């Protein structure tokens, strides 16, 4: 049988392609499946390792942040204690210089430290002494009940390391070199709702050797832990967003669960309980097996369902990889269905078979096409080649052997070779020129990218700097206003909004005199200084605001730079400072007056004693009961009976009784004045409140002068005292101060608003209610409205004309009753129906 050349070529080509495709499909299928599955799962493991490293970096950042925050807060409380020691040292220097007594200096130092708060009111300073074995608390602003006591017992054994007494630990730390250090313990935390349960705290204590005081302040650890928890939550949210973008295989995913078997991140079961998660391949809890696998190679096979089409059908084999991150007790996992891994390999195998079939078909078609043209087209190809090469002569370099057709073909091929060589050389030149151009373009692009990067960095820095400046301006307690050269407002900080009630949007672009007329007038006076480049200052500027004066320091700075002219106006509210300065001046005056009164009382007491003694001697030397008087009368030629008759008729004896009574009354008044003006050490003792009321009433009856325009003696006093009242523990001078203040206020209120048809009356009541003694002072004066009642106990609030009252009397009285004596202070008043002040003192004052 004779076969054509075309048939042989086609048959041979087909057999080669078929055997090649079958061999590839048979031998490579299993290897491809295994290799692709391993590659996909290795990719899942690599993702877990990458996430593990990312979590490790974030955790190291958390640890560094926590340590840095703790170190920063420790240094902060150390600085706070240093400031507190400076305040105490300042008072000590006043004591050394003689301007204050030791008691005054120590009291002022403790009061200043009691008001010293920071960190939004949660930070405070306390003071202990160095007495042994357990120091006594001298001042504590949040738990006053421990002040003045020796605090021992299980309640105070709260140090973290040894559970020893807290105040003993403070003493040990302060008495060891260098006299300062840190102590960790548990202590209640002050919040707006009150004190919490004990929380971990670290305090810094320092010994003030001159007075043997231990001064300390602390910070609560949970304040730092709260910031760390926020950063940890942010880390979980960032990981969750990352996991949402990651795909393992076709349907796999990543998730994280904790050692408590709670899903922290999971695309389906996040936050759900894991009690029902069973590996249906083994019947054991899935997460328990995951934890065990993390201790081995990290791999685990289990059966699971495949939502949404096969939810609840736990028959699909799944392959997981888990790695344990011990510092956070986290298990980082990746899981993928095994059939999904095989699907990728199957798809690749199918592609191989498809390529083989395509190659077979293409080979057969090409073989069929070219087999018929191998012989017949040779002459035509030779002729065509000759015509193409006729215009491009080239030396023949290919040997020409064989038939004439072959030699002719060799000649044509040489000509084509020469032409192709020429084309190649030209193309190489073009390629070199193109490559050079690409290099220059790349350099230009790199330079442009660098310039863009530098521009973006500069822009970010400018934005950050602008934000920092805005934050500084907004956080200042001063009013800051910026205007341009035409007095148009350009800047208006938050303090300006709060003080004026005008927002930045409302103020911007408006003229300064239009928005704040009083500033506009001051700004006109400062124009010459601003034009000369000098700042203008106006101190203690007074203006009326809501029926009360307000004092401000005003500073205007010129603004001249980069073509923008204008000014910056700063207003600082110094009203409280001015009030305190006025009170200090008034206090000094009152101290001088008190000292002068005490001196005058002593000077008056001496001749008064002589008058009383002389009156007593006259009665004794005219008494008929004394033999020496009768003898002297007889020697003088008169009888004692006649002398007594004369003195009786002339009312001399009655005059002597009047002299004695008046002298005794004056002596009692002077004794009360001396006792009240004498400096009080706030010593508490057992007292009868009705006696203190009577004593204060006697002092109040002497409080008459033309300036106050009232005479206490013209007021009717009614007393309603219960009988058999028990003693109370109190400071007599402080209670007298409260009573004098209330009596004076009642008398002055009735005098300023007199009623012709009513006699001014003050009713004094002392009675017992439960475990308290209640003292009431009620008048029939004009009373108070609701707005006045709300503010009556506020410091510096007064209804009296300016210069008459300080506004501190009732606030100090309220402090004395509620803070110093653990009592209660209340007020009842109706306009036109009088006022009643009541205060309660406990019968048994708690220690």
Structural summary, described in words:
The chain is α+β, with helices and mostly antiparallel strands and 847 residues long. The protein is 52% helix and 20% strand. Strands 1, 2, 3, 4, 5 and 6 form a six-stranded antiparallel beta sheet that branches. Strands 8-7-13-12-11 form a five-stranded antiparallel beta sheet, with helices on both faces. The model is unreliable at 375-381 and 391-396 (pLDDT under 50).
Q: Which structural class matches the secondary elements?
A: alpha+beta
* Percent strand: 15-25%
Q: How much helical structure, as a percent, in the residues?
A: 40-55%
Number of helices: 21
Beta strand count:
25
Kindly provide the radius of gyration, computed on alpha-carbon positions and rounded to a whole number of angstroms. Answer: 51 Å
Q: Biggest β-sheet, characterized?
A: 6 strands, antiparallel
Overall 3D shape: elongated
Mean pLDDT: 79
Distance between the termini: 131 Å
Low-pLDDT segments? 375-381, 391-396
């Amino acid at each position: 049988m004779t076969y054509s050349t075309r048939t042989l070529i086609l048959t041979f080509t087909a057999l080669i392609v078929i055997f090649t495709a079958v061999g590839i499909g048979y031998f490579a299928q299993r290897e491809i499946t295994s290799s692709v599955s391993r590659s996909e799962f290795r990719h899942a493991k690599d993702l877990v390792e990458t996430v593990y490293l990312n979590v490790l970096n974030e955790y190291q950042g958390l640890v560094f942040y926590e340590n840095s925050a703790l170190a920063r807060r420790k240094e902060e409380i150390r600085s706070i204690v240093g400031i507190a020691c400076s305040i105490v040292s300042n008072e000590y220097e006043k004591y050394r210089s003689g301007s204050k007594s030791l008691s005054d200096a120590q009291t002022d130092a403790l009061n200043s430290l009691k008001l010293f708060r920071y960190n939004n009111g949660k930070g405070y300073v306390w003071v202990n002494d160095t007495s042994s074995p357990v120091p006594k608390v001298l001042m504590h602003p949040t738990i006053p009940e421990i002040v003045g006591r020796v605090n021992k017992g299980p309640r105070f054994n709260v140090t973290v390391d040894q559970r020893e007494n807290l105040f003993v630990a403070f003493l040990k730390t302060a008495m060891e070199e260098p006299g300062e250090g840190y102590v960790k313990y548990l202590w209640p935390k002050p919040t707006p709702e009150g004190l919490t349960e004990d929380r971990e705290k670290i305090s810094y204590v320092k010994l003030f050797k001159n007075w043997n005081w231990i001064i300390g302040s602390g910070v609560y650890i949970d304040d730092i832990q709260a910031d760390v928890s926020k950063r940890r939550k942010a880390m979980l949210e960032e990981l969750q967003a990352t996991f949402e973008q990651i795909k393992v295989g076709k349907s796999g995913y990543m998730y994280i669960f904790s050692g408590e078997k709670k899903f922290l991140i999971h695309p389906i079961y996040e936050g759900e309980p894991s009690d029902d998660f069973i590996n249906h391949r083994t019947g054991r809890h899935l997460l328990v097996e995951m934890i065990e696998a993390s201790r081995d190679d990290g791999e685990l096979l289990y059966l699971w369902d495949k939502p949404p089409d096969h939810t609840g059908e736990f028959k699909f084999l799944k392959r997981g990889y888990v790695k344990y991150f011990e510092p956070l007790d986290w298990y980082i996992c990746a899981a993928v269905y095994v059939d999904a891994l095989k699907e990728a390999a199957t798809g690749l195998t199918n592609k191989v078979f498809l390529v083989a079939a395509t190659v077979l078909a293409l080979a057969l078609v090409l073989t069929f096409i070219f087999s018929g043209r191998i012989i017949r087209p040779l002459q035509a190809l030779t002729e065509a080649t000759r015509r193409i090469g006729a215009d491009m002569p080239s030396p023949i370099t290919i040997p020409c052997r064989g038939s004439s057709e072959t030699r002719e073909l060799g000649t044509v091929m040489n000509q084509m070779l020469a032409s192709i060589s020429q084309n190649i050389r030209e193309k190489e030149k073009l390629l070199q020129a193109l490559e050079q151009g690409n290099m220059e373009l790349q350099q230009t692009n790199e330079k442009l990218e660098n310039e863009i990067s530098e521009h973006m960095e500069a822009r970010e820095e400018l934005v950050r700097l602008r934000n920092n400046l805005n934050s500084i301006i907004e956080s200042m307690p001063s009013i800051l206003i910026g205007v341009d050269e035409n007095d148009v407002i350009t800047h208006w900080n938050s303090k300006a909004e709060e003080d004026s009630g005008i927002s930045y949007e409302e103020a911007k672009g408006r003229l300064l005199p239009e928005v704040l007329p009083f500033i506009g007038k001051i700004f006109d006076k400062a124009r010459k200084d601003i034009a000369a480049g000098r700042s203008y200052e106006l101190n203690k500027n007074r203006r009326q605001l809501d029926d009360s004066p307000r004092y401000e320091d005003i500073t205007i700075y010129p603004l001249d730079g980069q073509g923008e002219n204008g000014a910056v106006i700063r207003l600082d509210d110094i009203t409280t400072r001015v009030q305190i300065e006025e009170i200090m001046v008034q206090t000094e005056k009152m101290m001088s007056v008190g000292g002068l009164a005490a001196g005058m009382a002593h000077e008056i007491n001496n001749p008064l004693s002589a008058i009383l003694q002389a009156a007593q001697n006259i009665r004794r030397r005219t008494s008929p009961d004394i033999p020496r008087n009768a003898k002297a009368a007889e020697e003088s030629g008169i009888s004692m009976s006649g002398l007594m008759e004369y003195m009786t008729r002339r009312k001399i004896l009655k005059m002597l009784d009047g002299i004695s009574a008046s002298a005794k009354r004056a002596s009692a008044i002077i004794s009360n004045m001396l006792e009240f003006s004498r400096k009080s050490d706030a010593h508490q003792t057992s007292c009868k409140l009705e006696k203190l009321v009577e004593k204060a009433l006697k002092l109040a009856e002497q409080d008459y002068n033309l300036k106050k325009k009232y005479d206490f003696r013209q007021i009717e006093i009614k007393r309603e005292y219960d009988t058999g009242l028990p003693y109370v523990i109190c400071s007599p001078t402080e209670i007298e101060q409260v009573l004098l203040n209330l009596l004076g206020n009642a008398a002055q209120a009735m005098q300023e608003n007199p009623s012709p048809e009513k006699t001014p009356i003050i009713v004094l009541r002392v009675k017992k209610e439960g475990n308290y003694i209640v003292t009431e002072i009620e008048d029939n004066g004009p009373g108070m409205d609701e707005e006045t009642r709300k503010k009556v106990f506020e410091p510096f609030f007064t209804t009296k004309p300016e210069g008459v009252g300080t506004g501190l009397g009732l606030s100090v009285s309220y402090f004395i009753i509620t803070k110093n004596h653990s009592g209660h202070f209340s007020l009842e008043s109706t306009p036109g129906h009088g006022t009643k002040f009541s205060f309660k003192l406990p019968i048994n004052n708690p220690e």
